[in-house]
Each structure stands twice: as structure tokens, then as C-alpha cells.
Amino acid sequence: MSNRYFRVRWKRILALLLIGVLYHSAALAQTKETRLNVTKDEILARAKQEGKLSLVPGYDKSTIGPLVAAFTKKYPFIDVSWQMVTGIAASQRQLFELAAGKAAVDVFSPSTAFTSEYFKQDLIMKYDLRGMAKSGQLKIPIQMLDESGTVAWLGSNVGVFAYNSKLVPADKAPKRWEHCVEPQWKGKIAVDTKPSVLAWLVPTWGEEKVLGFARNLKANDPRWVRGQTGSLALMAAGEFVVDCGMYLHTSSRALKRDPTMPIKIVVMTCPRASWLTTPKMPIGATGCTSTMP
After folding, report:
1. Are 31 and 125 in contact (CB under 8 A)?
2. 54 CB-near residues (< 8 Å, 6+ apart)
3. Is residue 150 a part of any domain in this protein?
4. Is the pLDDT of residue 274 over 50?
5. What is the domain range of residue 125?
6. 150-189 pLDDT per residue, tens
7. How many domains does the chain have?
8. Are residues 195 and 288 in the same domain?
9. Other CB atoms within 10 Å distance of the CB of residue 218
């Protein structure tokens, strides 16, 4: 990626973070039917008045320091504090705290496991991000916003395969989704019971094809697992030999912590130049693959 890519992306992310300073502003009342539309000047004025930003980002911990540093360099009048919330249990606890009014947070990354709950309990401030982007108050592409117009995608996950390199030769490892349902892997693969990676195929394959593939995957007698870090440890111990659908960042992070793990990663897609990739990006839509140590 070029330096220009990162500069442009930082500016867009920082613009969205600044909105969070208004998150709990009592001066801006809202109703369930109303969308809040503010100008850039109003954002800056209220940010200077409040002077603080509480952030719970959805990024890897190693990226948060540079993110906050870049933000405070551009907006030195804002004191930024942040904390990590990762995993289903922690995300659910945060949801309960938000609903009870006990969570002092301005901007947070909602858990995909409880997406509907944030809206049911009216926990997301209804800024009209779509309208603000169209009017130029926010310098972000419309494609970053979800159908509600109040939630912005700032990044994406990438789905990969992982396999035990001591038990599976590199040339025999699955490299396409259909390889996971071949008879040779019957009873030897693992599938997460939270099928996020599989669901990302829907935009390309369509719902019926994905459901049909899921049935075939089930018929191949997989080891059902929950939690990617634990799955990697089990696979390294030889409990199964292939994980069909793992997050790239989780597997890469585990290998950085312990490079001796007998795990290799297969990326099923070609790299894309556009940063407008969202969590809806189809995974495994091409035959392009690469193996990572």
C-alpha cells in the first residue's frame, strides 16, 4: 500500500472519530424518527467545548496507538482515552452497561453478534452521516455507511483457511471453499459455530448456494468449535488438521506470538487495491490463493 493510501484513510477515520465528541451532548436532543445533521463548524465548536473523547475501537490493539496519536496531533484540544472490548462475553457486558447508562463511551465498535440489539435499545445516536457525507460536511464515501445511515464501516475482516503444517503437506492443503467438502477431509476439519466468514460469501454466491454449501460442510462431519484462538491451539495439537474459515488477523497474531506453531494460512482471494472494502466483501470468490507461514 502507498503512503498516500494511509494518509487518505487516516483523514476519513479521524473525521468519523470527531463525531463521537458529540455523542452524549445534551444540547442535541433526538427522537427515534429524527436524524441529527450538524456542520463541520458545529462539530469543531462542540469538540473544543467538551475536550474529551472516550473510544472503544474495533481495531487490533497494535494499531490503536498510532490511530490515537494521529488524531491528537490533528486535534490537540481533545483528550482521548480508550479501552479494548473483545470477545462475545465482553461485548455483551458492554451492551448491558450501555443499556443501563453505565458505560461512559463516545465512540465504539458494535459487536456483530448483537447488531440488532443496539438499535432495539436505541443506543446509537442518530446522526445523519449519509446526509452529512452528501453535503460535504463529512469527507467520506457514501459506501462506508450501512443501510441505517448512522453506522460507518471503518475496516474489514479477511477470511482464510488455516492448517497444521506437520500433518498436511502444503500442496495438499485446501485452497478453495469447495475443497473443504471433499471426502478426504471428512472428520478432519473444524468449522466455527459463528459462521461469519461463511456468511461473507452471500453477496457473491447468493443465499441458496451458501446454504447448500453449509449443508455439505456439515455432512463432512466437521469438528464444531467456538473461538478462533482456541481453535488454533487445538489444531496445533493435532485435534484436527484444517480450519475452514478463520480470521486472518487472529491467526496472524497467534503466529507472531508463537512462530513455532505448526500452522500455515491460506488466503483465498486476490488482494484488492480499493480501501472501500467492507465486511460484506465476498471471500473466496476467485481462484487466487497464497500460502503464508
Report:
1. no
2. 20, 81, 82, 104, 105, 106, 107
3. no
4. no
5. 3-144
6. 888 877 778 899 999 999 999 999 988 989 999 999 999 9
7. 2
8. yes
9. 12
